[in-house]
Structure formats: structure tokens, C-alpha cells
Amino acid sequence: MSRVEEFEQLRPLLFSIAYRILGSVSEAEDAVQETWLRYEASPVQPTSAKAYLSAVVSRISIDVLRSARVRREEYVGPWFPEPLLADPYQDPERSAELADSLSMAALLLLERLTPLERAVFVLREVFAFGFPEIASAVGRSEAACRQLAVRARRHMDAGRPRFEADRQEREELAERFFDAFREGDVDALQKLLAADVSMVGDSGGKAPQWGRGIFGAGNVTRLLAWIFPALVRIGVTFEPHEVNGRPGAVFRDRDGRILNTWTLDVLDGQIQTIRSVVNPDKLGHMGPVADAWALAREANRARRSTD
User: Fold this and answer.
1) Is the separation of the CB atoms in 82 and 285 below 8 Å?
2) Burial 138-157 (b: 16+ CB within 10 A, else e)
3) Are 72 and 282 in contact (CB under 8 A)?
4) 3.40.50.2000, 2.40.400.10, 3.30.420.40, 3.10.450.50: which CATH number matches 167-306?
5) What are the φ and ψ backbone dihedral angles of 259, each rounded to 5 degrees?
6) Would you kindly state where each structural domain of the chain is located, as residue ranges?
């Protein structure tokens, strides 16, 4: 097998490692491309292409994350990972674990870790790499990597909800939620939302957004009941779609351009969090992006004409 063939076979795994370390589709794609350039330029053929390439993409991702953390601290408003509609790395035997590690909630928990802890956690807990391989990837001893793994697991376990819904329950509740949203059924919406539900958006200051979030079932229900008719008036449609391994939706303008994505966190049989990504810089990998400011102006004009 040629280097090109080996690399292309491993590309989905490399992207999946980089995305979980970085939380960014564009940065993960860049890390994978840089990995290929280094592999192509290397005069030595490694014993294991998988181990070698995984190590290279991990080191590149750690370096990128260190510089990205400064930018994220200066980010305007809440920061969410770039939405991913499908993980290219397919492992049917571990699909549930891979989907769990892809969720917005899990990726936001990973933000609490240092770059080294994050890389070690991803390689060990998500992709089941051995400590010798991890040590080579991150440039630390096996003993140090074991300590990093313990610390990372402790931080992640402390932040995880104790009783998260299973896949079938999430999907059934999401279907009821989007049906109620489409129909403007206020009573049904309120019953599906946790009392302390939050609806939070990531615009990065580059798209209209509802402040730092809407909180409480009553407030979120009123916003949801207002949003759908407003969207219909300006030709915006939505399609329920799994986003980051969780129920969600993709919203598009009348020309089919991406407006934003929603993801739903389900806990104890109710929706706990609705996360919206509307920052156009985080949507471009999904296709042409809508002009959210122009749509907001159009929605305001439409509302005034009906008042």
C-alpha cells in the first residue's frame, strides 16, 4: 500500500482525533493536512502508520490549541465548538462511545482541561490508545501520561450529569420538541423543557443573538413560540438533524443557505439546554452561509407590517 493510500485510509481517524482536541472543523482539517505534509516529507517509513500519524496529528493539535485558547478567552459571548453533522470515523462496535465524546457538552467539558490533558484523554478514553503510544504522541513519559489521564478523567467525571438519557429517549423527546416547535404548541413545549432550561447562542459578535442566553422554562417557551412564526414569514426552514452526535436541527434561508444549528441536551426526561451556533465563521464547512443580519432586518420589517 502506498503512503497516499495509507494516509487516506487513516484520514477519518486523524480528523476525529484532531476535532475532539480542537473543537474546530477548520483547525482539525488544517492539522490533518499538515500531518500529511510531514508524512510525505519524512524519509523514514514508520513501522505503524497509524501510530505515527496519530502522534503527529496530536502534537500539531496540541500546539494549535495552545494558541487558540488565548483567542477563545477574548471571544465575544459564549464559545461553542464548530458543529459537526457526522463523524467520519466509523467504528460500529464503539459508535455510542464515539458519539458521546462528540457532543457539545463533552467538548465544552474538555475545554476545562490543559492541552496535554485533553490530548491524553482523547487518545486514551475515546480511541483506546495504549500509554506507550500516547507517551510518544505527547512527548511525555508513560508515568506522566497516566497521571494526566487520571486528572483529566476526574475533571470530566465531575462535570458530567449523573443520569443522561439514552439515544432512543433523546431521539423521541427531540421529535416531540420539534413537532411542538413547528406547531407553536406552547403547552407541549413547556412540558418538554426543564424548569431551569437554558437557550444559549454562539454568534461571536458576528450575527444577531439574544444576549448571553435565555433562562427558565417560561422565558424559553415564549421565545420559541415567537421564533417559528417569525422564521416562516421570511422563508427560513429547519430540518431536524443529528448535530455532534445529539438531536438537533439545521436552519436554512429560502435559498438553502445555512443560518444556524441547534443541539439539544436531554437530562431526566426533559430538555436541559438548547445550544445555537450562528457565528458564520463556524458554519462555512457545511455549505454556503446565510446573511443573518439581513434576515433579522427582514424579520423586523415583516413583524412591523403585521402589527
Assistant:
1) yes
2) bebeeebbbebbebbeebbe
3) no
4) 3.10.450.50
5) -100, -50
6) 3-159, 167-306
- 3-159, CATH topology level: Butyryl-CoA Dehydrogenase, subunit A; domain 3 (1.20.140)
User: How many angstroms separate the CA atoms of 29 and 82, rounded?
Assistant: 12
Taking only Cα atoms into account, the Rg of the chain, rounded to an integer number of angstroms, comes to 21
How far is 196 from 204, CA to CA, in rounded Å? Answer: 24
Render each residue's pLDDT in the chain as its tens digit; 307 residues.
789 999 999 999 999 999 999 999 999 999 999 999 999 999 888 889 999 999 999 999 999 999 988 888 889 999 999 999 999 998 888 888 888 899 999 999 999 999 999 999 999 999 999 999 999 999 999 999 999 999 999 999 988 766 667 889 999 999 999 999 999 999 999 999 999 999 999 999 999 987 789 999 999 999 999 899 989 999 999 999 999 999 999 999 999 999 999 999 998 889 999 999 999 999 999 999 999 999 999 988 887 776 5
CA distance 280 to 275: 15
pTM: 0.93
Identity of the residue numbered 28: A
Q: Under the phi-then-psi rule, with left for phi > 0, alpha for psi from -120 to 50, and beta for the rest, what region is 8?
A: alpha
